[in-house]
Amino acid sequence: MDRRNPIPRVNFSPSLLGLLGLAVLGLTACGNRLDTADIEANIQADIERQGRRLSLSAVRCPSDVSRQAGAYFRCVGELDPEGTFTINVTQQDNQGNVTWEVPNSKVLLNLPTVEDTIQQELSQAFGQRALIDCGTATYRVNQPGDRFQCQVVGGLETGSSSIDSVLVRIDPDGNLSWQELQSTTAASAAVALSSASTAPAVPAQPASAPPANGAEPQAAPTVKTTAVTGPTGRVINRPYLPGDND
């Protein structure tokens, strides 16, 4: 043995080996965690970009999410002063790639979901496929008392009239209802009708004009309503549509 260059030998105690083992496990665990801070920033930027005049206070996700393909977790978006809303996140792989979606809530509306709900109800009522377009934004603040129009692409013919658009209203509780806006084909005049009415509008008579044939004036017909589930999940009453179950 060459004693001029002795090889140093280090002895590790069992306790030191145990500490080193814990350190390795700790590094492995940290490396298997999602970078949720990066996910938060990306989601916030996308919602603001896809929203209608939206500025979020923050997006907050759990900080201890393990990388796992198909795993699901929730984040919370914050709007001031409207409140918070849920963001559902799904991992696509174990590399940190995720997809996410924002369901309708009392705080934020998912307009493609609103479009889909109206499309289904119109198609069922009139037996025709209806395509609804609520604009280029994906998200809109669910503001009580607000209203907005969605277009019926190409119109929906209902005999003597055509449904060209839909007026969506938000009640004080944040629930949605809607009514058709029709144009009469013969007169080419826009007439706002309830969702129940498919009959042509009765022309207005001057107040001084007597009823035809001396008949007594007739009371306006009562609008029949039916209960449906709105986009936010609450059962609401909307005017009756042909095809509803009596």
What is the CA–CA distance across the termini? 103 Å
The shape, in one word, is elongated
In round numbers, the mean pLDDT is 74
What's the number of structural domains?
Answer: 2
Q: Total number of helical segments?
A: 3
- β-strand percent reads 25-35%
Order of helices and strands: HHEEEEEHEEEEEEEE
SS-based class: alpha+beta
Strand order of the largest sheet: 6-8-9-10-11
Largest pleated sheet: 5 strands, antiparallel
Helix content: 10-25%
Strand elements, count? 13
Unreliable stretches, pLDDT < 50, 5 or more residues? Answer: 14-30, 185-212, 215-237, 240-246
Specify Rg, calculated over alpha carbons: 30 Å
What does this 3D model show about the protein?
The chain is an alpha+beta fold. The protein has two domains: 33-102, no CATH class; 109-199 and 223-239. 20% of the residues lie in helices and 31% in strands. The strands form four sheets. Strands 6-8-9-10-11 form a five-stranded antiparallel β-sheet. Strand 12 and strand 13 form a beta hairpin. The protein is elongated and about 65 Å long. The N and C termini lie far apart (103 Å).
